[in-house]
Amino acid sequence: MKTKQKLQRTMTSRHITMMALGGAIGAGLFKGSSAAIDMAGPAVIIAYLIGGMILLIIMQGLAEMAVRNRDARTFRDLVQSVLGIYPAYFLDWIYWKMWVLNITAESVVAAIFLQYWLPNYPIWVLALFVSVLVTIINLLSVRVFAETEYWLALIKITVIIVFIIAGLSLIFLTFGNHTAVGFSNLNDHNGFFPNGTTGLIMAMLVVIYSYGGTEIIGITLAETKNPEQAVPKAVRGTLIRIISFYILPFFIIVTLIPWYEVNGVPESPFVMVFKMIGVPGADHVMNGVVILAIISSMNSGLYGSSRIIYTQAIDGRIPPFFSHLSKRKVPIYAILLCTSALYIGVLISLFAGSKTFEFLMGSLGYTVLVIWLIIGIAHLKSRKKLQDQNSSYSVKLFPYTTWAAIITLCAILIGIILTTSLIVTGVTLAIYIFITVTYFYKKSKLE
Question: Which CATH code fits 13-446?
Answer without folding.
Answer: 1.20.1740.10
